[in-house]
Structure formats: structure tokens, C-alpha cells
Amino acid sequence: MGERGFHLEKEIVPVKFALVEKVLDLARANSLWPVTFGLACCAIEMMATAMSRFDLDRFGAGVFRASPRQGDLMIVTGTVTKKMAPVLTTLYEQMPSPKWVIAMGNCAISGGPFVFEGQYNLVEGVDLLVPVDVYVPGCPPRPEALLEGFLKLEEKITGSRRFPRVESVW
Amino acid sequence: MNGIIEAIKTGVPGVEPVEVSYPEKGYHCALQASPDQLIGVVRFFDERRFYLECLICTDYADYLELVYLFNTHLAPCRAKVAVKIDPRQPTAPSISALYASACWYEREIHEFYGVLFTGHPNMAYLFLHDGIDHYPLRKTRVPVPPEDRARLDSFKPCEAEDTFFINLGPQHPSTHGVLRVVLKMDGEYIEQAEPVLGYLHRMHEKMAENRTYQQFLPNTGRMDYLGAMSFNLGYVLAVERLCSIPVPDRAKFVRIIATELNRICSHLLWLGAYLADLGALTPFLFVFDDREAILDVLEGVAGSRLTYCYFRFGGLYNDVDDAFIAGTRAFVKRMWSRFSLYEKLVTGNVIFLNRTRGIGTITREQARKYGVAGPVLRSAGIACDLRKMEPYSAYNEVDFDIPVGEHGDVLDTYRIRVAEMENSLRIIEQALAKLPGGPFMAEKVPKKLKPPRGDVYQVVETPRGELGIYIVSDESDGPSRMKWRVPSFSNLMIFPELAKGVLLADAVAILGSLDLVIPEIDR
User: Fold this and answer.
1) Angle (CA) B200 A33 B520, round 5°
2) Which of the residues A7, A33, B27, B371 could staple to B101 if both were Cys, CB 3.0 to 4.6 A apart?
3) Is there a domain that residue B463 lies in?
4) Is the pLDDT score of B155 beyond 60?
């Protein structure tokens, strides 16, 4: 986790079934169930990602759950305020393991455009509260960017990528 | 207008109302009152069926000023009542007994400025978190005294027999964001509903005081991300009024085309999300399909999909091209053919009708007392639309109707929003036909704005209703105070009243019909 945020204790697994774990990881990566956690503007782009044109269901991740106990992925879509912080932590703790977090948008990454000297109500980055797996920058990020975030997360879980990587032309 | 000044002089002895130039200031008359006279003045406006538009506090270092804005739904007649109070012992009489809408405004001012309103029923904090130790919007650092600290963490449920509490939110799909409503239940029926705000308080008004006028432009789109164009338009109109910047005709027409496209976009999203609240997921997929068509058109000129910042002081960021005009024409054609589909899918659906008919009924008097705005106000039968009442940009050159409701229930707000989408299409068609040539940006807009000392008020009709922007200038290049009167805030105020005694499932239907956007409420 580096300098920001906190360190998690290394997971201690007494027995590891290598092949079974790999198969399970493949299953998990292809059926991520996000928790409906819309905070601000980015939530609308998250909805757009799940809807007709961008169709998140193609990647098996379109089953948005309204309860944290049924989800394994939290997409933090928007500004986290000091009043919201304890709620967010509680929701994260209520999710069953294994679980992942995507910080969507600049607010969730670092506080974004709302950081200024003398601010009194902002958590400057959700990684100060919960461990984050994938950061998707943008204000708000386009749906394509969130899809790329999902692909990155799948890559992190399984170790291989679904599609060939797209090279930037610039 | 002269009538009201004479009426105030005779009705409330001792105050001196003056007529104000509306194009320069945005209000018609102004008067100064002492805290003792305040109740008398407010009673005068209440008897003449004015509604309380906004309550604003401004810190002028050597005194605090409370500004009460009153207006009528029938004809534009905005009166500004200013009350000076001592910053060391800031107290003022509460007017929440006369105007229910003042209740929340007074609570807001109390937590941001430390003004204590005597006679207020509940001075609990509405927005801020437990750890706050000073009044954020005061110009000098004023610590929160211990008796005020006890008011933090506002709503404390108490135990009673046969009642229990439900937390609706802050993370709940049907609150459309991070609104929290604490419901005191008696079985399936709601006894009392208490909204708790501030889970997305992003300090926009504080930021405005730290920025220049240009630097604040991107914030407008993030305040109401569904009606970003309207908020952007309201802000540039307010600053144009403050600095007397002329706007070319072409820009005026492009502004209303872009704003109306955005309005359709917002209503479509409401339609989908509201029906999803009621359990119908299919329309959600249809509306997003239509919505993407608008986003493509707007993205072509504004550069973003959601948080637009397309308007500039004196014009536009860039001119519209042929692709925009062709795209808009294609969308208008497509959208006209879609209404029959929504009609078949939704309006005739018996489950939808039974869940929305006759619930959340608002009377005209309630609408006035709470200062509700937009489609919710018009559902009560009051034909008040600021595009017609106080026309801005090019709205006086296009023809459109104001749809109003008959019963004031939730079904009426649905019908009004659908009719508004049709009217928006009509506006776009006319504006495209009339679109003049010429420059899209005023000449000689200074890079650094230095407006004269004073205040202005500007209203626009957003998809959710009346947005008011109050700017105080101290001759520097940034505002000294900027207050946003937002429609969702005043619409949410009426929710505790509407939710009393209804079923929990109906409360969700009522809450959805208000079309709340939480960042706009919390600011």
C-alpha cells in the first residue's frame, strides 16, 4: 500500500490448493458482483456503464447488488466526505471476502477538484479508509475507462488478461 | 411594482422600501429592517401570499447580514429584506412558524455562521460532521461553543413502545445518492420522517470564496450533474449581470438548445430511475439508450458527457458546428417517435398507476409555505415556470406551454415531466429554425473580472425547478459570498410532511417523485 493508507496483515492460509484456487479465481473474475454504491457524479457514469450501450454484463459484472453482504466488489463512485467515511468503512467490512475495491474518479482517488487549503469536510482519497485495487482516473471517467478498470481487476485476480492490451497511439 | 412599495409603506410602518433596477440586480425592491421589525415584515408578505424564496447570510466582517427573498408565483415581484445583526452575539427571531421552509434555511445558517434563531423548534445540525470545531463560512475563525457542540450529530432516536426506527440510507438505491432519512415507524406506517443531510457536502460555497469567477466555472457542473447545463447557465448569467457583459444572439440561442437537450436528458434519467424504484427495470434500459443519443450530441460541442462547462462569461466555449445541428435534428426526430413507446410501456401500466395515483398529494398552500419548485410545484396546479416568468437568454423568443397538474399527486409529476420533454423538443425545433449567425462570444470580455461592489440575484429554471444564485462582490476578482438556492433542497423539505402516516413503500414512491440530486442539496 505504500505511504498512503494502511498495511494489511499478510493473509495466512494454512493449506493452499493451487489448482482449485486458480479455478476459483477464474470464476470470481468472470462474475464480479458490484455493490450499488453511488456517491456522486461518477455514479451516473457507472449506471451508464451497466446500461444498454456499454453493457457491463458482457464481463459478467452487471449484477449490481443493493446489499454489501451479496457483493464482492465496491466501486467507490464519488467524493467521500468525513460524514460518509464511517458508513463506507462499515459497508466494506460487511462484504464477504475475497473482496475488491475500485476507486472511480478523481474524488475517490485523491479528493479531486474539491481539495483546497482550509477544506473541512473531505477525505482526500478513499485509500485512506479501505485498500484500493484499481484506480480509474477522470472527472468523471468515461464508461470505457471503467470497463478498462474492470479488465485490470480481472487481470489482477487471475493473472492473465481477457483482451490484448490496446496501445496508445499518442 | 409601484403598488408593492406603497403597500409595504402602509402595511409595515417604519421600514423604507426602495425600488431597484431589475436588469441590474435581479430583484425588484429592497428594504432594510431591524430584528424587531422582521416578524412584522414577514407577516406582511405571508398575508399577501408571497413565498420565501431563499434565506441567505453574509459575513461583512463588522456585521452579519441576513437576506430574506420573497416572491410570488403569479407575477415576478421579488423583494429583498435585509437584516443586520451583531457578529459577536448573533441572534435573530425565527420565522419558521410563518414559513415552514425557513426551518431548514435557519438551521443551515446556524451551523455555517453560528446565528442563533430564537423560537426555532429544532436547531440541530443538518449538514456538518461531528468533528467540526468552527463555523466554516465566517470570515474569521470562530470556534463552536460547547452548547452548540451538543447539537452535532443531529437526530437521536428515542425509545418508545410500539415504534421502531428504520434508516433509509445513506447508502440506499432509492435515495438516488447519499441521502439519509430516519423513519420512525408504527408497523408498516411512517409516524415521522427526519432527513439527515450532509453526506456529500463538498463545500462549493466555501470554495467560491477562495476562487476567482473563472476558476469556479467547473464547480457548477458538479453541483447538479444531471442538469449541469442549467447550473452552468445560471452561474454565467449571474456573473454577466454582475459585470454587465453583453451576450451575442447566437450564443443565447445555442444556450437554450443545449440547456433543453440537457433537460430532456435529466428527465429521461429520472423516468428510468423512478420506475426502477417502483420495481420496473425495463424502462431504465430504454431511457439510457435515448440518453446516450443526447450525450453524443452534447459531447461533440462541450467535450464532456456529464459535467458540462460549456458556457463562458459573454458567450460559449466554442461555436456549434454542422454536426451538432444535424445531430440535434436527428435526435429530435427520434425522440418524437419514442413518446408513444413510453406511453405504452409506462403510462398505461396498471401497477404503475395504482402505485402513484393519489399519494404524496400537495396542496397549493403547502407548495407556497414550503417553497417547492419545478414539476412538484406545477403538479399542485401553479403554472409557475421561470422560463416564462422571468425570461432569460432567448426563452422569450420561443413558444412553449407550462404543463400543470390537477391533483398534485405523484402521478401528476410524472405526466408533467413527460409533457415538459415534449415542450423542450418544441423549444429546440424553434431555436434551431431561428438560430442566427454572427459571433458566439462577446468582444472584449476582460480576462480578470473586477465587478463593482454590490449583490445580484439570478434565477433559472433547472429540470428540478428554481435555481437562484446570489453573489456578493467586494470589488476583488472573486466573489465574497455566493449562495445557491437549490430546488432539490426546498423540495426535500416537504417530504417529512408528505411521508407522515403513509406506507413505507409509498414513501419511496414519494421520495423518488421529488427527483432529488443529493450533491445539489448538500452543496
Assistant:
1) 15
2) B371
3) yes
4) no
> Which whole number is the average pLDDT over B168-197?
83
Residues forming a β-bridge with B485? B468
Facing A120 at nearest CB: one of B200, B203, B519: B203
Per-residue pLDDT at B134 exceeds 90: no
Radius of gyration of chain A (CA): 16
Q: Please, what are the domains in chain A?
A: 34-158 (3.40.50.12280)
- Label the pairing between strands B64-71 and B79-85: antiparallel
What range defines the domain where residue B276 resides?
204-522
The per-residue pLDDT for B186 is: 83
Residues 6 or more apart whose Cβ sits within 8 Å of residue B96: B102, B103, B106, B117, B119, B120, B121
- Residue B271 is assigned to a structural domain of this protein: yes
pLDDT value at B146 more than 90: no
Q: Chain B residue with minimal CA distance to A67?
A: B172
> Does residue B276 sit in the same domain as residue B141?
no
Q: Which residue has the cell 431561428?
A: B434
Is the same domain home to B100 and B215? no
Question: How many separate domains does chain B show?
Answer: 2
pLDDT for residue A2: 43
Chosen domain end from B132, B149, B166: B149
Q: Residues B115, B246: one domain?
A: no
Q: CB B288 to CB A47 under 8 A? A: yes
Residues of A with CB under 8 A from a CB of B: 36-41, 43-45, 47-48, 51-53, 66, 78-79, 81-84, 87, 91, 113-114, 116-122, 139-140, 142
Contacts with A34 from chain B: Cβ below 8 Å: none
pLDDT per position as a tens digit, A9-53? 566 666 666 788 888 888 888 888 998 788 888 888 988 898 888
Answer yes or no: do B519 and A53 touch at CB < 8 A: no
pLDDT above 70 as % of chain B: 97
Q: State pTM to two decimals.
A: 0.90
A54: pLDDT strictly greater than 50 = yes
From the list B132, B207, B291, the residue facing A116 with the nearest CB is B207
CA distance A97 to B55: 49
Instruction: Write B288-292 long-range contacts (CB < 8 A, 24+).
Output: B288/A47, B288/A48, B288/A51, B288/A52, B288/A53, B289/A51, B289/A52, B289/A53, B290/B334, B290/B335, B290/B338, B291/A48, B291/B265, B292/A48, B292/A52, B292/A53
- Rounded CA-CA distance B521/A137 in Å is 25
Whether B98 and B231 share a structural domain: no
Q: Does B288 touch chain A (CB under 8 A)?
A: yes
Q: What pLDDT does residue A131 have?
A: 92
Q: Is B67 on the interface with A (CB under 8 A)?
A: no
- Looking at the structure, tell me whether residues B130 and B215 fall in a common domain: no
B207 vs A contacts (CB less than 8 Å):
114, 116
* Total residue count of chain A as it appears in this document: 170
- CATH value at residue B232: 1.10.645.10
For residue B179, tell me if it sits in a domain.
no
Burial of B161 (0-12, 13-18, 19+ CB in 10 A): exposed
Contact check, Cβ <8 Å, B200/A81: yes
Of B131, B202, B225, the CB nearest to A114: B202
Q: Residue A96: is its pLDDT beyond 80?
A: yes
Tell whether B199 is within 8 A of chain A (Cβ).
yes
Of the residues B152, B179, B212, B222, the best mutation for testing chain A's interface (the one with the most A CB atoms within 10 Å of its CB) is B222
How many angstroms from the chain centroid is the CA of residue B322? 34
- B211 and B123: one domain? no
Which of B201, B215, B220 should be substituted to probe chain A, the one whose Cβ sees the most A Cβ atoms within 10 Å?
B201
Instruction: Decide if B282 is inside a domain.
Output: yes
- The residue in chain B having the minimum alpha-carbon distance to the alpha carbon of residue A91 is B171
- Is B199 within 8 Å of A81 when comparing Cβ atoms? yes
Asked if B117 and B242 sit in the same domain, the reply is no
Reported as a single tens digit per residue, the pLDDT across B387-420 is 888 888 889 889 999 999 888 888 999 999 999 9
Confidence of residue B25 (pLDDT cuts 50, 70, 90): confident
User: How high is the pLDDT of residue B326?
Assistant: 93
B128, B149, B170 — which closes off a domain? B149
Q: Which residues of A touch B306 (CB under 8 A)?
A: 41, 44-45, 140
